[in-house]
């Protein structure tokens, strides 16, 4: 039997390293992390860039996963599988938080709501399954933007709509918000889509750590946030725990 192909093993290791990173990585960082010669790492990266599996930032020269790979990585996962894997965790999150829960995935530059659990009380609520939400004005959308190059690319050259006074429409401010999401591991919206409404969301990852969706809660600002309009740590923990649980079920074992 033929043995393993070393160059493919090294390319796979680079892709896994980039998938696990919270930001872009330079050639030296990649080479050092994997014990490769700098020239070897650079050659593999240039090949991966030519086929669209990695992208190089023109300003910093650092690398991140490319849109082609992200599309390939998420194509195995249809909406029904995402929903079926997450449904029990979504119900538990609604019960623990006392708020409505939505699960979303990227579709044509929007967040497609694939599952919705009502807030567990007697208030009148409308089912949001099938709704398309803006990426830049929702916690679900920011969780996708921060971790999915496809999501970021889909709105890069579009004019962002303002829904409320607090909606972020400046691409530079949105990029900073995405950086904070990557650093914190969760996203928030506070009266950015609807007055009086707030939300918290975290990314759902599949095999290799690639983001395939997001799960989050939404409700009145006074319930989601403290008096300083900061999301309650207890609710953030609930959302992150649910995202990790769904990720584990989808093969993202590190999360």
Automatic annotation (TrEMBL):
Keyword Transcription regulation: yes
Residues of the HTH iclR-type domain: 5-67
Pfam families from the UniProt entry: HTH_IclR (PF09339), IclR_C (PF01614)
Signal peptide bounds: none
Span of domain IclR-ED: 68-252
Keywords, in A-Z order: DNA-binding, Transcription, Transcription regulation
Coiled-coil residues: none
Keyword DNA-binding set for record: yes
Highest taxon of the lineage: Bacteria
PROSITE patterns: HTH_ICLR, ICLR_ED
PANTHER family to which the protein is assigned, alphabetical: HELIX-TURN-HELIX TRANSCRIPTIONAL REGULATOR, ICLR FAMILY, HTH-TYPE TRANSCRIPTIONAL REPRESSOR ALLR
Protein name: IclR family transcriptional regulator
Organism per entry: Actinomadura violacea
């Amino acid at each position: 039997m033929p043995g393993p192909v070393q160059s493919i093993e090294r390319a796979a290791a680079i892709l896994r390293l980039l998938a696990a990173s919270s930001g872009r990585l330079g050639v030296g960082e990649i080479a050092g992390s994997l014990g490769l010669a700098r020239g070897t790492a650079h050659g593999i990266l240039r090949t991966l860039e030519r086929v669209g599996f990695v992208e190089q930032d023109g300003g910093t020269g650092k690398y991140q996963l490319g849109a082609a790979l992200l599309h390939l990585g998420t194509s195995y996962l249809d909406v029904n599988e995402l929903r079926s894997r997450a449904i029990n965790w979504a119900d538990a999150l609604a019960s623990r938080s006392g708020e409505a829960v939505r699960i979303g995935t990227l579709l044509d530059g929007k967040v497609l709501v694939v599952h919705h659990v009502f807030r567990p009380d007697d208030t009148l609520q409308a089912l949001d399954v099938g709704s398309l939400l803006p990426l830049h004005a929702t916690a679900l959308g920011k969780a996708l933007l921060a971790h999915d190059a496809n999501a970021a690319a889909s709105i890069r050259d579009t004019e962002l709509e303002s829904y409320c006074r607090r909606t972020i429409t400046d691409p530079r401010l949105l990029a900073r918000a995405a950086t904070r999401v990557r650093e914190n591991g969760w996203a928030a919206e506070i009266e950015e889509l609807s007055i009086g409404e707030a939300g918290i969301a975290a990314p759902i990852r599949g095999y290799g750590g690639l983001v395939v969706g997001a799960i989050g809660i939404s409700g009145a600002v006074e319930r989601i946030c403290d008096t300083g309009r900061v999301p309650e740590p207890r609710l953030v923990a609930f959302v992150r725990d649910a995202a990790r649980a769904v990720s584990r079920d989808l093969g993202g074992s590190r999360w």
